Amino acid sequence: MAETKDWFVYLIRTNASSLYCGVTNDLQRRLKQHQSGTGAKALRGKGPLSLVWSQGANSKSEALKMEMAIKKLTKKRKESLVESQKPFILQ
Question: Which one, out of 10, 51, 53, 77, has a CA that is 20 to 30 A from the CA of 25?
Answer without folding.
Answer: 77
